Amino acid sequence: MKSEITGHTRLAALFAKPARHSISPVMHNLSFAHHDIDAIYLAFDVEPENLKDSIQSIRSFDMLGVNLSMPHKMAVIPYLDELSSAAELIGAVNTIVNKEGKLIGYNTDGIGFMRGLKDIAVEIKNKRITVIGAGGAATAIICQAALDGVSHIDVFNRKDEFYGKIQEKLAYIAEKTGCRITLQELTKESELVDSVKNSALLVNATGVGMSPNESQSPIEDFSILRSDLAVYDVIYNPRQTLLLKKAQESGAKTANGLSMLIHQGAAAFELWTEKHMPLEIIKPIVEKL
Ligand code: NAP
């Protein structure tokens, strides 16, 4: 944001429910100010029944674009004019760019994850990885990893009524990307052990271990962790989950979900402004929030 809001100031926003707790306004307003861009970013609580009108307001108010979070990431798709290949594959949108009234949906969550791995110097191209969880965060991670050349992804999830749908979705992603993707039940311990043994990276893409349940972990047998198995946890509260603590004790490279959160925002900022988010300024501030 420039020091003064004028008649020319453009608006970017978060549409979510709840939206007010988000760190996105801090990240984007600092970045607009850094680049002297005449724009502001606000967070709006948008109820599902108001989503269609809210999306139309992007055109009506000539907004730069918006970020979307739960519960709108999938529901927004019918209101958009175009989807990026990743957003189409994932089936969810977290960023909309307003290109002269044409609304283009992107998903930068997976990009955020891949950049988070780069920060800790972990390369997974042509390698096998293990992902626990198959929800929204997992799907974005799996799609981007597959698009970026990971050869083999083993997904483990609880067997519930959605298991068949997950299977279909993963088969679609595998077909579109050429990545080998398997789905197995999380209770199948020997399969999990075997997968992790052959993987370069283990990802927790569930909320297991998140505050206030900090004593929980998506795996129980920590002996499968080792120094050359990188471990990524999408959780950022707490910064160090039990899984990450155990992985660090085994000498592994680790990262928490804060890097994914920051980098998904940075990728959205690039789409709106064609400029880089000043991460050297943003990271230390966001880490303290
Ligand atoms: P979601 O769509 O509801 O998916 C949750 C996933 O976790 C599902 O696969 C679910 O399995 C699994 N799960 C939930 N409880 C479990 C349990 N007790 N044991 C085993 N598996 C369990 O949620 P999401 O949006 O993917 O979010 C998942 C986590 O990622 C949350 O902690 C969220 O805060 C975090 N997240 C982080 C970022 C980031 O930028 N760092 C971005 C998005 C989300 P079922 O299918 O069996 O329910």
Short description:
This protein has 289 residues and is of the alpha/beta class. Helices cover 37% and strands 20% of the residues.
Give structural notes.
With 289 residues, this protein is an alpha/beta fold. 37% of the residues lie in helices and 20% in strands. Strand 8 (152-157), helix 6 and strand 9 (180-185) form a beta-alpha-beta unit. Helix 1 (24-34) packs across helix 9 (258-273), helix 4 (109-119) crosses helix 5 and helix 5 runs parallel beside helix 6. The longest helix has 16 residues, at 258-273. NADP nicotinamide-adenine-dinucleotide phosphate binds at residues 109, 112, 133-138, 157-158, 160, 162, 186, 206-208, 210, 234-236, 257, 260-261, 264.
Strand order of the largest sheet: 2-1-3-5-6-4
Overall mean confidence score, pLDDT: 96
Tally of individual helices: 10
For the biggest sheet, the summary is: 6 strands, mixed
Q: Using only CA atoms, what is the Rg?
A: 19 Å
